[in-house]
Amino acid sequence: MCLDVCAFIYKVFNKLNKNVFKKQETSIIFDFIQKFYKEFEKKPTIKELALYIYNSSLEDHLKKKVIEYFKTELKGETEISNFDFLIDFTEKYLKKVALTDAILESVEVLKKDESLDGVDIISKFENALDYKFDTDLGMELILSLEERFNRYKEKFDTIPTGIKVIDEILGGGVRPKTLITILSPSHGGKSALLSAFSAGFSKQKKNGLYITLEMPEVDILKRIDANILQTDIWKFEEMDWETYHNMYSKIKNRLGRLFVKEYPAGSFSTFDLTKLMYDIEQENDLKLDYIIIDYMGLMKSTRVRLNQGSYLYFKSIAEELHGFAKKHNIPVITAFQLNRSAYNNTDAGLESVSESLGVIMTADVSILLLSNEQLKEQKQIMLKTEKNRYTGKLDKVLLQVDWPKMTFKGVEDNENVMNELNQEFTSLNENLIPSEDIENNNLIDLSVSNLEDDDFEFE
C-alpha cells in the first residue's frame, strides 16, 4: 500500500484531496489519513488507520464498507519498492483528474456567464496541464560542492545579437531561461532593434519565432530582409523577383529558420505561444532557439484582467513570459513602451517607466532606447541598460542606426560623443541652477564616478 512508503506520503500529501478518488471507500480512507496526520503529525499504520476509522463517528454502513475494503483489497503484500514509478503514476493520474475537472468546471462557467472573456478557463487548463510534483530539493551547501564548482567553470550558452556593443554588455549575448525587455517611447526604435536581433540570430543558423502584434508579418520580414541582404528597404518595391530570389539563393543554407506570425492586439497570450511553439517544432522537426514578441504591451494575460489595474496586468504578462522562458529553456525578447516623459529625453530613467515598472522588476535584462533632436539628426540612439542580471553592467552607449538597412552598430568615438551629450545636458541645467550655487560648488554629485562599490547591487 502507498501508505507504507513514507517518502511518497510526504511528496504527494499536499497535492491530494478526497475528491480525486473514484471509489467512495478510498475517498473516505484518504480523508481519515489527512485527519490522522493533522491530529498526530505522523502517518498511520494500516492497523492504526483501521482502528481510527472504526472508532470514528462515521455512519455504520460506511464504516462497515471501509473495513471490508481493508480486508479484501489491502491483504497480502503491501510494500512498494519502486518509488519513482509510484510518483510518476500518481502525477499522471492527478493531472488527468485536474484536466477533467477543468473541462467540467469550464462548461458550468460558460453556462452561467455568456460574457466570459476566457481568462478563467485558460487559467484552469494551464494549471491542469502544468500539474506536477516537484521532487527537487535544491542544492545543499556541502553536498553540492563538486557539482557547484563545475558549474562555476561552465560558460553560459549565449546567442550573440550580432551587435557588438550590446553583446559586450550582455556578456556574449542573450541566455536561455531569461526575459529581455527593450523599452522606448513610441516610434523609438523597439521594433527595428527586435528585427535586427532576429536577423543577427538567423545569420548564426538559429531557429526563431517572431510574434508581431502591431505590424503586418510582411513588414517585419521586409525589415529583416533589409538587414540580412544589406539592401535599402525601399529598394524591394523596385526589385524584380529574379534578383531577390538570387540574393537569397546564395545564402539561404547559411540561415536559420524564422517563423513570423501576426496576431491582433490583445488576442495573444502565453497559452497561445505554447501551442504555436509546439506546432512549429512538431511540424518542422526542429527546436526553436529564441522567441521575439513585438510587443509585450499588446499581449493579454491569462491570470489577470486589465480592469484590475495596468501595473498588475502588465507585471502579470511579464511573469507569464518569464515563466515560459524558464519552462522551455529559451530566451524571450520583447518590448514595452515608455511614457511621454521619455520622448526627446536621453536622461530618462525609471521615472519614465510608470506602469511598466513591474515589467522591469520581472525581466532579467531591461534596455532603454532614448533619443533627442541632436541624436536624430546624426541617426543615432542612446542605449541605456537599466537592469542586467547577466553581468551587472549598467552602461550607456550610443548606437549608429542605418534605418534603410535596419542595422545597428556602436558609435566608434562613443566616449567623446557621450561627453558632448553630458556637457549639453549640464549646460541646459546650469540655466536652472542659481549662479551662486555653481560658484560655491553647492551641487550634489550624482555621477557614476562618485559611487562606491557598495552602492551597486546585482541580482
Quick recap of the structure?
This protein has 459 residues and is of the alpha/beta class. The protein contains 17 helices and nine strands. It has helices at residues 6-12, 24-40, 46-54, 60-73, 83-112, 119-129, 145-153, 164-170, 190-203, 217-229, 241-249, 270-284, 310-328, 357-362, 373-377, 414-430, 435-439, and strands at 179-184, 208-212, 258-262, 290-294, 332-337, 365-370, 380-388, 396-402, 407-410.
Report on this model:
The structure is a single chain. With 459 residues, the protein is α/β, with parallel strands linked by helices. The chain has 2 domains: 2-129, no CATH class; 164-439, P-loop containing nucleotide triphosphate hydrolases (Rossmann fold, 3-Layer(aba) Sandwich). The chain has 17 helices and 9 strands. Strands 3-2-4-5-1-6-7-8-9 form a 9-stranded mixed sheet, sandwiched between helices. The longest helix is centred in the N-terminal third of the chain and has 30 residues, at 83-112. It is elongated, with a radius of gyration of 29 Å.
